[in-house]
Design brief:
heterotrimer; A alpha/beta; B mainly beta; C alpha/beta; A: alpha/beta; Rossmann fold; 2 domains; 7-stranded mixed beta sheet; 14 strands; 19% strand; B: mainly beta; OB fold (Dihydrolipoamide Acetyltransferase, E2P); 4-stranded antiparallel beta sheet; globular
C-alpha cells in the first residue's frame, strides 16, 4: 500500500475520467487531438493508449459539428466528454452549446437529458495573445441550462469531474490552464496541488469551499484567482496582520450564494477577483448576491479585481497589468482597509 | 536500495530537463510502478515510475534541473 | 424498393393528415389576430412555419423508419411529427402552449420533443444535423440498431454545421441520412441566389457519402430513394444526402405574402395533396370514395385534436421553474 499522493489538477481530473471510463461503457471522449496527442493541455494524456481510438475519438476541427454530435450521443444515453482546448473557440460552437446542449432538457420539459461534459481550457498569464487567453466565464455562466464547474485544486478537480460525468445535466468543466499544472506552462502553482485519495469520490455542485477562515475581509476567487487571493492574503497577514477569509465557490453555476453572504456578514468587507472581463461578469454577480440580500452587512463598498474590460494584450508587462494578480488584490485590499 | 534514475531514453538529445512535481514526499511508501514524479523536457512531459517498492528518499526536489542518467531519488 | 398499394394509400393518408392539421392551424392562427396583427395574440401565438406542399418529404421517407431510429426536425416540423406518428392532441396542445402539450408548453411549434418517437426539433438552421449524427455515432459505438435522420431545407446546406457534420458523417461512416427539402427558398432568398451548385446532393461527393436528388415532389420516388439511403445506413455503408424537390406553398411563415417569388413560379407550384390523389386514382390504387373517406377521417381526427388543445388548460406560470436541471440519477 503506497503513501498519500500529491497531484496536479490535470492528473487528478484525468484520474476521474479514467475511472469513469473503466467503470461505465457509455462514457467516451471526443475532441481535437485527444487520441495520440492526449489533448493540447494533457487532459487526455495516456487515455488514448488505454481506451483506444473508438473511445478516445479524434475529431476534425469542426467544433459546432462535434459538440452537436456529442449532444446527440448524450440524448441517446451515452455520456460524452468533449475536449475543447481553448474556451476562446466557443465563438465557432456557441450555438451548439447554448441552443442545443443547454436547451434540450428544459424545452422538452424534462423528457430529454443531455448528460455531457464539455471540458474547456481557459485563462491567460502566459503571453498567448487575445484569442488564446480569455476566461469568458460570464459568457458560459450567463445562459441557463448548464452547470459550470471551475476547480482550483487537485482534490476538487477529481471530485468535480466524477460529479460532472455522473450528472444527468450538461456540465461545462472550465479548467484554468495555469492551474492545471501541465508542463509547458512552467511548474504547478503550489496551492493548486493537493493530496488526492486513490478511490473515486464526488463533490456536490453549488457547495463552496472555505479555503481559509478569517475575520477582516472576505475574498472570493475563481480557479486561478483563488491562488492569487491566497498569495495576497498571506502578504496581508504577514505585513499588516490582516485576517482574510477566502471563498472558492468551486462551481459558479450553481453558485453558493449563502456561503458568500455568511462570510461577508462576518467580515463586513468583500473583494471579488476574476480573470474575466469585469463588466457584466462574475464579480458583479457575487456582489449583487450579497447586496440584494442585505446591504447593511457591508461596512464599505465592495471591490472588484478583474480584467478592466480590455482585450488581452500580448506583451508581458501589459498582460500582467490587466490580470487580477495578487499585487492588484493586495493594493485594492489595503485601500479598503485604510492601510 | 534502488536508485531512481532519469532513464537515458526519456528524451533523445543531450538536453536538460526539469522535475515538474513529486507525487510522493520523502519518507513515503511507494509501490513498483507508481508514478513518482513528472519530468519535463522542452515542451513535453513524462511520468517517471517507481522501479521498486519501498521507502522513498528524494534527492532532487521539484523544479530541479536534471540530466539523463542522473540519480534523483532512492527507494529502500 | 417500390411502395406497395397499401403503403401508397398510407402515404396519401399521412399527407392529408398533415395538410388538414396545417389548414386548421392556419385558420386558427389568423382568426384572432385580425385586424391588428400581433404575433403575441391569439390561441396560436408566435411564428408558424407550415408544411403546406412539403408533406411528401416526410410521408415518403418515414415508412422506412422504425421506432429504433431517431429523427431531428427543424423549424418547419409539422409534417415530420405527424408522419412520424406523434399524437395529434399533444401536438395541437403544444402549439397552443397548453399544459397537455408534448413539452407542457415549454417548447412550442419549433421545439417539439417526443422521447417515445425519438423525435426532436431545433429552430436553428442545420443545427439538428449534429445531434442526429451524434445518435448515429452512439448507436454505432454500442453496436445497436437504429439509424438517424435529420430534416432541413435546402438553404440550410449553406450553414457551417452542414459542412462540419457531413464531413464527420463521412469520416466515421455513420448510419445517418440528411434529408434536404428543396423548396427553392431560404426565407426570401432563392436557391439560385444563395447556392453555387444546382443540387446539394452533389455535395455528397465532397464528403465521401452517397447522394441522391428526387424531382417533382413525388411520394413514390421519394419512397424509393429513401429505401436506398436506409439500406446503406443499415448495412454499414454510411451516410447519405437525400435532396427532394418540393414546394413551399404558404411562404416561409404564416403571413408571408411571397411577394418576392416570381408569379410564374407561384403558378407552377403543384399541390401534392391533389397531385398524389389524382395519381393514385388514375393508377387504380385508390377510388374517389376511398380518397374522400381518408379526407373525412383525417379531418375529424384533426378537429378533435384542435378541440382537445382548445379545451386544455394553460400551464401554471410557476411551472416555468420546473425541470430546469436533471440532477443525478446514477
Amino acid at each position: 500500500m503506497s503513501s498519500e499522493r500529491t497531484l496536479t489538477v490535470a492528473r487528478a481530473g484525468r484520474e476521474a475520467v479514467m475511472w469513469e471510463m473503466q467503470n461505465d461503457p457509455s462514457v467516451f471522449m471526443l475532441g481535437e487531438d485527444v487520441f495520440a496527442f492526449g489533448g493540447v493541455f494533457g487532459t487526455a494524456d495516456g487515455l488514448g493508449e488505454m481506451f483506444g481510438p473508438d473511445r478516445i475519438l479524434d475529431t476534425p476541427i469542426s467544433e459546432t459539428g462535434f459538440i452537436g454530435l456529442a449532444t446527440g450521443a448524450a440524448m441517446a444515453g451515452m455520456r460524452p466528454i468533449v475536449e475543447l482546448a481553448f474556451v476562446d473557440f466557443i465563438g465557432v460552437c456557441y450555438n451548439a452549446i447554448v441552443n442545443l446542449a443547454a436547451k434540450h432538457y428544459y424545452l422538452s420539459n424534462g423528457q430529454v437529458k443531455v448528460p455531457m461534459v464539455l471540458m474547456l481550457g481557459s485563462g491567460g498569464g502566459y503571453n498567448n495573445g487575445a484569442q488564446h487567453s480569455q476566461s469568458l466565464l460570464a459568457s458560459l455562466a450567463h445562459m441557463p441550462g448548464s452547470v459550470v464547474v471551475t476547480p482550483s485544486n487537485a482534490y476538487d478537480a477529481k471530485g468535480l469531474m466524477h460529479s460532472a460525468i455522473r450528472s444527468d445535466d450538461f456540465v461545462i468543466y472550465s479548467g484554468q490552464k495555469k492551474v492545471a499544472g501541465v508542463g509547458m506552462l512552467g511548474t504547478p502553482i503550489k496551492t493548486s496541488m493537493s493530496v488526492v485519495p486513490d478511490e473515486p469520490y464526488t463533490i456536490p455542485f453549488g457547495v463552496a469551499n472555505i479555503v481559509q477562515e478569517g475575520t477582516d475581509l472576505t475574498m472570493v476567487g475563481v480557479s486561478w484567482t483563488v491562488h492569487q487571493c491566497i498569495e495576497a492574503a498571506e502578504r496581508l497577514q504577514s505585513e499588516h496582520n490582516v485576517s482574510v477569509e477566502i471563498i472558492d465557490p468551486r462551481t459558479v453555476v450553481p453558485l453558493d450564494r449563502d456561503a458568500i453572504f455568511d462570510s461577508v456578514k462576518k467580515t463586513g468587507k468583500l473583494l471579488v477577483a476574476d480573470e474575466d472581463y469585469q463588466s457584466f461578469g462574475f464579480t458583479g454577480e457575487v456582489i449583487a448576491s450579497v447586496v440584494e440580500r442585505d446591504p447593511s452587512v457591508l461596512s464599505c463598498a465592495p471591490v472588484r479585481v478583474a480584467n478592466p474590460d480590455l482585450n488581452i494584450p500580448y506583451s508581458r508587462p501589459m498582460e500582467l497589468r490587466v490580470l487580477p494578480t495578487a499585487d492588484r488584490i493586495v493594493e485594492e485590499s489595503k485601500k479598503m482597509l485604510g492601510l | 536500495m534502488v536508485e531512481v534514475i532519469i532513464p537515458n531514453d526519456m528524451w533523445e538529445e543531450d538536453l536538460e530537463g526539469v522535475i515538474v512535481t513529486w507525487i510522493y514526499k520523502t519518507g513515503a511508501t511507494v509501490s513498483e510502478g507508481d508514478v513518482l514524479c513528472e519530468v519535463m523536457v522542452e515542451k513535453s512531459q513524462s511520468d517517471l515510475l517507481a522501479p521498486a517498492t519501498g521507502i522513498l528518499t528524494i534527492i532532487e526536489d521539484a523544479e530541479a534541473i536534471v540530466k539523463r542518467g542522473q540519480v534523483i531519488a532512492r527507494i529502500e | 424498393m417500390k411502395p406497395t398499394a397499401a403503403q401508397r394509400k398510407a402515404m396519401y393518408s399521412d399527407i392529408v393528415r398533415s395538410r388538414e392539421f396545417d389548414d386548421r392551424v392556419l385558420e386558427l392562427y389568423f382568426a384572432d389576430k385580425m385586424p391588428v396583427f400581433d404575433l403575441a395574440k391569439g390561441v396560436i401565438p408566435g411564428e408558424i412555419h407550415s408544411s403546406h406542399g412539403q408533406e411528401p418529404c416526410a410521408a415518403g421517407t418515414m415508412p422506412h423508419l422504425t421506432l429504433e431510429d431517431t429523427i431531428t426536425s427543424n423549424h418547419r416540423p409539422h409534417h415530420h411529427a405527424i408522419c412520424r406518428g406523434l399524437d395529434l392532441n399533444k401536438l395541437a396542445a403544444e402549439l397552443m402552449g397548453k399544459k397537455t402539450g408534448y413539452c407542457a408548453g415549454k417548447g412550442g411549434h419549433m421545439h417539439i420533443y417526443s422521447v417515445e418517437h425519438k423525435f426532436s426539433c431545433s429552430g436553428i438552421i442545420a443545427e439538428g444535423m449534429g445531434p442526429a449524427a451524434g445518435v448515429a455515432l452512439a448507436n454505432k459505438m454500442r453496436e445497436q440498431d437504429g439509424i438517424a435522420v435529420s430534416y432541413m431545407g435546402e438553404a440550410a446546406a449553406n450553414q457551417g454545421a452542414f459542412h462540419e457534420v457531413m464531413n464527420m458523417a463521412g469520416v466515421y461512416t455513420l448510419p445517418y441520412i440528411c434529408i434536404i427539402e428543396d423548396n427553392n427558398w431560404g426565407v426570401s432568398v432563392s436557391k439560385k441566389a444563395s447556392t453555387a451548385i444546382e443540387r446539394n446532393s452533389e455535395r455528397a461527393a465532397s464528403y465521401g457519402v452517397y447522394g441522391e436528388y428526387v424531382e417533382n415532389n413525388d411520394c413514390d420516388l421519394i419512397f424509393e430513394a429513401m429505401s436506398r439511403c436506409v439500406d446503406r445506413a443499415r448495412s454499414g455503408q454510411g451516410a447519405s444526402i437525400l435532396e427532394i424537390q418540393t414546394y413551399r406553398l404558404k411562404g416561409h411563415m404564416h403571413g408571408d405574402q411571397m411577394a418576392y417569388v416570381p408569379e410564374e413560379e407561384v403558378a407552377a407550384m403543384k399541390d401534392c395533396v391533389i397531385e398524389y390523389r389524382n395519381k393514385l386514382i388514375s393508377e387504380g390504387v385508390l377510388t374517389e370514395k376511398e380518397a374522400e373517406e381518408i379526407v373525412s377521417q383525417q379531418k375529424s381526427e384533426v378537429d378533435a385534436a384542435i378541440q382537445f388543445g382548445l379545451d386544455s388548460p394553460y400551464p401554471d406560470p410557476e411551472d416555468a421553474f420546473q425541470n430546469t436541471y436533471a440532477g443525478v440519477s446514477k
